[in-house]
């Protein structure tokens, strides 16, 4: 039995064939427009301020709605800037070829039109169409009679339909673009140099994460898709650049949920002669300034909370935060078994295979993070959780590391970078043993250790998850809402 969609598609194919048979090209190469929809509306405002509407405009876009009123037809036309109304007044004014072409138009088609700008009695900015041209024939109908696409899975799989049907989705990605532009401006103005580092790396390093592995045929060698840009950026600090950053795609072969996508955008920056206190100050200034620039305010609304991004942000040690939110002082339970028993006694779900550092991280994620709504820096982590960070002065078990939290989201990670090559090798070797014991594939980046042996100055490093930052600025609860094409499992 033929479905409704198949019938509509067949009808549109028949229209396409009629258009071709008439000698009209349904897919011309270009169209010269004088205005976007937004510019046409602005032009009308200028004309009205001069008490005249004698002007023409040529616009182009997709037909989104059509209304017949006697011999007149109103069409809503949308382009990338917005919507404008078209008036086809007495369609029979056109010659037979154009009249037949009009009869073969459908919602979803792209057209170009030219005509006079005016405002209808209801106040709607409108173009009275004097001529029109088909620019692309749509063979499939827009979803749900063009009133919006609601199927979440379909929205992610066919993002182009989501963008056509839901203007607010386009607004989200405009904000995303503005956020990234603002970050670049902020860092460039402070003397940071934007650089690019390899996506394919011979060693997976810079973070504790499982990598994607691929094969380079010409080199006959396995490579890893980068899990971080850290180790290459710090090589540049060794090489003499004082301030560098990279905004790039990063890949981690791990779980997918509302906070994680295996491919995501990461900002990493490194500043010579700075420590994590300097980086903390930069982060609170950067996030608040971006909010002001993009949203026009330093106060955002996320979930059910109103959040003030104005500096200074609260600072609390990890130990204090865990005690405050869970009642567990992890320093008093120095082994994995002791900490696991304490967690179980408090009805906290425990993975029996996790080591001590991962158990502390589990408490942080489960008990602490949800309560960190206002901007907060959680600082000073156990060394076993932070192999690339420098120890606090005179403290063997604590390093200078912080993570910024907003709205219950962890948005980044930062260190005073470890620049002692001997200690860094020791840390890497300890980490390698742990990960191999847990069955994970991990390697030591020997070239990075070699670079450290040539000397790296004191350095403050930062990583910020762009996707989560955009979630905050657009009040989205799922990371898939701020990634144009999130990873999805193929349908069977």
How is this structure best described in words?
By secondary structure, the chain is α+β, with helices and mostly antiparallel strands. It folds into 2 domains: about 140 residues, Nucleic acid-binding proteins (OB fold (Dihydrolipoamide Acetyltransferase, E2P), Beta Barrel), CATH 2.40.50; about 260 residues, Bira Bifunctional Protein, Domain 2 (BirA Bifunctional Protein, domain 2). Helix content is about 35%, strand content about 25%. The strands form 4 sheets. Strands 6, 10, 11, 14, 15, 16, 17, 18 and 19 form a 9-stranded mixed β-sheet that branches. Strand 8 and strand 9 form a beta hairpin. The radius of gyration is 29 Å and the shape is elongated.
This entry's quaternary arrangement is single chain
Global geometry: elongated
Give the structural class.
alpha+beta
Proportion of residues in helical segments: 25-40%
Query: Which stretches are low in confidence, meaning pLDDT under 50 for 5 or more residues running?
Result: none
In the CATH scheme, the class of the largest domain would be Alpha Beta
Q: Give the end-to-end Cα distance, rounded to a whole number of Å.
A: 22 Å
In the CATH hierarchy, the architecture of the largest domain is 2-Layer Sandwich
Number of helices: 14
CATH fold node name of the largest domain: BirA Bifunctional Protein, domain 2
Mind describing the biggest β-sheet? 9 strands, mixed
> How many strand elements?
19
Mean pLDDT: 93
Tally of distinct domains: 2
């Amino acid at each position: 039995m033929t479905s409704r969609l198949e019938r509509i598609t067949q009808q549109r194919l028949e229209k396409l064939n009629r258009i071709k048979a008439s000698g009209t090209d349904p897919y011309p190469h270009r169209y010269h427009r004088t205005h976007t929809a937004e510019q046409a509306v602005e032009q009308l405002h200028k004309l009205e301020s001069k008490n005249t509407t004698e002007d023409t405009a040529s616009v182009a876009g997709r037909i989104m709605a059509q209304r017949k009123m006697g011999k007149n037809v109103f069409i809503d036309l949308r382009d990338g800037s917005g919507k404008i109304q078209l008036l086809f007044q007495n369609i029979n004014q056109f010659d037979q070829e154009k009249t037949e072409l009009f009869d073969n138009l459908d919602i979803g088609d792209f057209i170009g039109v030219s005509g006079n700008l005016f405002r209808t009695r209801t106040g709607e900015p409108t173009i009275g169409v004097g001529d029109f041209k088909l620019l692309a024939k749509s063979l499939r109908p827009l979803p749900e009679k063009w009133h919006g696409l609601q199927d979440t899975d379909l929205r992610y799989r066919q993002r182009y339909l989501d963008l056509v049907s839901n203007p607010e989705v386009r607004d989200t990605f405009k904000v995303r673009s503005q956020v990234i532009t603002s970050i670049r401006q902020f860092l460039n103005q402070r003397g940071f140099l934007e650089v690019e580092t390899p996506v394919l790396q011979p060693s997976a390093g810079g973070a504790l994460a499982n990598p994607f592995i691929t094969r380079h045929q010409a080199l006959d060698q396995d490579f890893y898709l980068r899990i971080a840009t850290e180790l290459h950026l710090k090589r540049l600090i060794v090489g003499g650049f004082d301030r560098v950053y990279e905004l790039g795609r990063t890949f981690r072969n791990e779980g997918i949920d509302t906070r994680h996508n295996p491919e995501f955008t990461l900002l990493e920056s490194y500043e010579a002669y700075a420590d994590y206190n300097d980086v903390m100050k930069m982060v609170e200034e950067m996030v608040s300034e971006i909010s002001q620039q993009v949203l026009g305010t330093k106060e955002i609304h996320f979930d059910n909370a109103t959040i003030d991004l104005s500096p200074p942000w609260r600072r609390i040690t990890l130990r204090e935060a865990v005690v405050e939110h869970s009642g567990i002082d992890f320093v008093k339970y120095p082994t994995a078994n002791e900490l696991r028993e304490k967690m179980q006694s408090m009805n906290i779900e425990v993975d029996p295979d996790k080591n001590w550092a991962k158990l502390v991280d589990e408490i942080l994620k489960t008990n602490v993070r949800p309560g960190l709504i206002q901007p907060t820096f959680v600082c000073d982590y156990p060394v076993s959780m932070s192999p690339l960070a420098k120890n606090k002065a005179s403290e063997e078990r604590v390093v200078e590391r912080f993570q910024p939290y907003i709205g219950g989201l962890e948005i980044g990670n930062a260190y005073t970078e470890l620049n002692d090559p001997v200690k860094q090798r020791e840390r890497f070797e300890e980490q390698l043993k742990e990960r191999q014991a847990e069955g994970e594939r991990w390697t030591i980046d020997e070239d990075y250790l070699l670079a450290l042996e040539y000397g790296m100055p004191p350095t403050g490093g930062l990583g910020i998850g762009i996707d989560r930052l955009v979630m905050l600025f657009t009040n989205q609860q799922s990371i898939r809402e701020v990634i144009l094409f999130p990873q999805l499992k193929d349908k069977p």
